[in-house]
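Subject: Sanity check before I submit

Could someone independently write out the structure tokens for this chain? I want to compare against mine line by line before I put it in a report. The sequence has 155 residues.
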Amino acid sequence: MPSSNPSQTQNSPPQTDTQQPKPHQNSTQNDPVLDENQQKTELLVEEEEESECGFCLFMKAGGCRDQFIEWEKCVEEGEKNQEDIVDKCHSVTKALKDCMEANPDHYGPILQAEKAVEEEAVREVEKEMENVESVATIEVEEITSSSGSEQKVAS
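---
Independent answer below. Compare away.
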């Protein structure tokens, strides 16, 4: 006959009040200094996460956390010292991009967006070049035709 308690089923194991140790706990769990340091670290991480932008959190959540942090530091230092960030941070930017390309599962959407922006910029430059060429061609034709008219008038 089934149990009258609906929360228990026939196949459920008997419940005990004994707590099982958590897998992440180790022999240092009773060390108050380590516990206090861990709590401080967790608080700092939480505060940092609360104050960071979504993009930064996304970048740090993937496999390129360290490269992104180095890139951030370089940019902040360059801005603070009014340096050319492109020149100053070239190597850390390359390291970050290489890492992102090696981790497309996480960073793929950002890489795709960056590629789309680059392609659009190339199209815009090509369009501008076509406009410049058209204007230059028209100006050359005008100069050529006006100099031909002057020669006819002079003769």
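---
OP: Matches mine. For the report I'm noting this point. The chain has six helices and no strands.
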